[in-house]
Amino acid sequence: MGHAGGLLADLRAAQGRGWVNQFLQEYRLNSSEGVALLSLAEAFLRVPDPETADLLIADKLGDADWRAHAGRSNSRLVNSATWGLVVGRALVGEGDQGPLRRLISRAGEPFVRQAVGAAMKMMGEIFVMGRTIDEAMRRMKKPENKGFTASFDMLGEAARTFADADRYFQAYVGAIEAVGSDAAAGHSVSVKLSALHPRYEVARRHECVPALTEMLEALAVQAAAKGIALTVDAEESERLEMSLDIIGTVAALPGLKGWDGFGMAVQAYGKRARPVVAWANGLDRIMNVRLVKGAYWDSEIKRTQVEGLVDYPLFTRKAATDVSYLAVARDMLAAENIRPAFASHNALTVATILEWAGNSRDFEFQRLHGMGDGLYERLVREQGYHCRIYAPVGGHRDLLAYLVRRLLENGANSSFVHQLAGERLSEAEILADPVAKIAAVGGTRHASIPLPRDLFAPGHRNSEGLDLSDVPTLEATVRAVNAPLDAAPVVPADSGAVTAAVDRAAAAFPAWSATPVGERAAILERLADLLERHREELMAICVQEAFKTIGDSIGEVREAADFCRYYAGEGRARLMPQELPGPTGERNTLHLDGRGVWATIAPWNFPLAIFLGQTAAALVAGNTVVAKPAPQTPRIAARAVALAHEAGVPQDALILVPGGPEVGAALTADARIAGVAFTGSTATAKRIARALLEDDDRPIVPLIAETGGINAMIVDSTALPEQVVADVATSAFRSAGQRCSALRLLLVQADVADTVIEMLKGAMDTLRLGAPGDPATDVGPVIDRAAYDRLMTYRDGTRERWLKTVAAPGEGLFVPPTLIRLDRVEDLQQEWFGPILHVATWDAGTLSETIARVNAKGYGLTMGLHSRIARAAEVAEAEAAVGNLYINRSMIGAVVGSQPFGGEGLSGTGPKAGGPHYLYRFCTERAVSVDTTSAGGNATLLSLDEGGI
Ligand SMILES: NC(=O)c1ccc[n+]([C@@H]2O[C@H](COP(=O)([O-])OP(=O)(O)OC[C@H]3O[C@@H](n4cnc5c(N)ncnc54)[C@H](O)[C@@H]3O)[C@@H](O)[C@H]2O)c1
Ligand SMILES: N[C@@H](CCC=O)C(=O)O
């Protein structure tokens, strides 16, 4: 396509002009140096302490070859930045003996941070139009922006607190005021709704949609009065319908009639892009629609997988998004009420639109500040087309982190501008028709992005999730989980019933253990299917019996199904007889068989998943099982056992014995029990261990005990506070803190403690305590009065050290989430199984010591680390004595087959649930050796082929 070729040539030529382009040329974002620089830029400016700043520099600059770039660029500015990096590398990476280091070190350590700081400042200027709206507007007046207009956005992280949201709102008000003071310049403002409310979530739609509508209305009225345009930025697809509700309401406001400045962004990577544009065209007004390729591609792909949704709401191939973009663009050009804005740096896309638009100039292009120089200059300055620069405004410290992450997340390597930098690609390759590319692969999904269902293929099938961002699905789920339960009570067993159960299970053992493992596995897979078929009923029991929130109840059913399918697969793969090597004339076989009757004893906090997980593993290994649920949650267990029987587990191969500690004690005291799989408190585990050893005549049987922990998260000053706070709130308060994995002890580097704690306090204000069956609830009641009294007594006794607590409903067993200051790591000595979080600080440079102090508690379940320094992650990996270490993420929600779960020390015996070594512990190993020559003659040896001689 000729037009595209011309644009491409302009674009290519422009890449060599100006220091910004030269910087990008020198440090291509798909080179290791480019990525190192971006990673450094993401974190460096927020690190207040020199010690950590040096570690970060060493970490990011250490491996890259900066000298290769020295003096190579035509730009002096770029070369001086490069020297900063060379110097930085020398100081942190060459050891004491490097000549450069010796030379530079005379200038003192601060010099290196200044040099790197200067390089970061350059990067800030590349990505950020101005630190304030005035600075940004001044920059727009510079010759390089001549003829272009701007859409300014006070971009940044999504708000985590109401205070953040208020700050962003005021920034938008200020921007509209400033831009409106020179309305004739034609600039506009973009707003991001997720910056204006800390809980912009479908589950909280009754609260956030009206609040956001009100804020957007205020901004729109202000913009209309100033005569400037206002565009609502795109959000993730899970928020699309809420965004449309808000935009639709504001668009229809009578007071805004006649103002043609209102607009919205549409993401072409979303499969709903065309209907959204049709919707916008149907509003009774002119809408400015900015078509973008899409801003959250990788996080949306991941969310879909994590939540086990049926399919992706977005395209999995870049070329498919390009095709979608063109299809939507054509709709927009034909639409009556839409003023199109095509945001693209792709020469082919631009050329196609130019061709389709014919002589019209009644639309605009848009490009990002810092990208796509050269593509539009001629069109704007010589041919009368319009182009707007999307211009982020804000302090480099906050904004650079955000923009760099977006850039890294959105496949910098595959974006058009960065492809250009790769000299290997010819014009024909760069301008290849995306429709042809998609046709060539038959329109199929990307092979490396399987459907969530197939995530573990060829292993087990992933469990099905529920898309609660879909309002009809959410509402149906809410109705189902709150429907009254069938009231039949589950009668506790007495000691006679326990003995009878073991009698029956022992009698059933020979037949069940002789059932081929493949058949036992197939029964578990049928059980998984049944669990999913009865999902709503099971979720209702979780909500009403265990007070689990809706989200946790989905997780519960999914994990139970995953355990069944995973252990089924593991059974087939690992429990078949194995032929072993040996001398000729001998056959050696290893058999993994069931041991007999297992007792499985479960806690109330995972009354389906853990109850069934332990049981399924014992069953597939050929054991029969007497299963004891927690006394608080017998119903869900009874339903699970009934479904297991329906799936084909013989009645006597799995027997439920409901009841409390006395039933558990009677069960473990029965000398016929061949093994115990227990999950619960450390104290109970020890009691069971002692009971199993009490009778000297009894065989020593295996005990798998999964217990509690004092779980810590360590945060250094390179971590992003917004991410930390989100992960802390999830880890400490989700499930009302009633997960063994939950965060109990937050350890923040002293230099950033005030900032992180302040934000955390704000985030705690956004928590909603309420009924578990209400989707808006974050924290439900705790399990029972005894737990409530225990937690409240402890909490009341720490009142003078509270940093924050939140209000709880007057009625019900609600323990208010509370943040408690500790002076020392050692001050927390036991697990408090509820929404109570302790916080202490640690000093820069003492990561190893801090980990050692946590280890010294003797527990070893989960630990979290938030740091941008890879070396810190290596230290944690090597030194944290825990079963599950989580880096830069929350520390709950282990997934079967991905994060085998379980601790060490006081936290458990292992092997880990949902991991490849679990089943073996349920088996007895028998080696059989047969002398195949005992009757005379070694047939194998005698019939050997002579190998052709
Ligand atoms: N590591 C893990 O995977 C994991 C998972 C969930 C819960 N937990 C831990 O479980 C605890 C909370 O659960 P809980 O309150 O139900 O624990 P718990 O120890 O009180 O009870 C667990 C189970 O053991 C039974 N039991 C109690 N005394 C017994 C005895 N003497 N003999 C045999 N059985 C007996 C109970 O009836 C219940 O079924 C927390 O400490 C938590 O950290 C650990
Ligand atoms: N496996 C669960 C915790 C189980 C204990 O309560 C998690 O990873 O959050």
TrEMBL record:
Gene Ontology terms for molecular function: DNA-binding transcription factor activity; L-glutamate gamma-semialdehyde dehydrogenase activity; proline dehydrogenase activity
The protein's enzyme class: oxidoreductase
Domain Proline dehydrogenase PutA residue range list: 20-127
Sequence ranges assigned to domain Aldehyde dehydrogenase in this UniProt record: 493-926
GO cellular component: cytoplasmic side of plasma membrane
Reaction(s) the record says it catalyses: L-glutamate 5-semialdehyde + NAD(+) + H2O = L-glutamate + NADH + 2 H(+)
Sorted UniProt keywords: NAD, Oxidoreductase
Positions of the Proline dehydrogenase domain: 136-419
Protein's GO biological process: L-proline catabolic process to L-glutamate
Designated name of the protein: L-glutamate gamma-semialdehyde dehydrogenase
Gene encoding the protein: putA
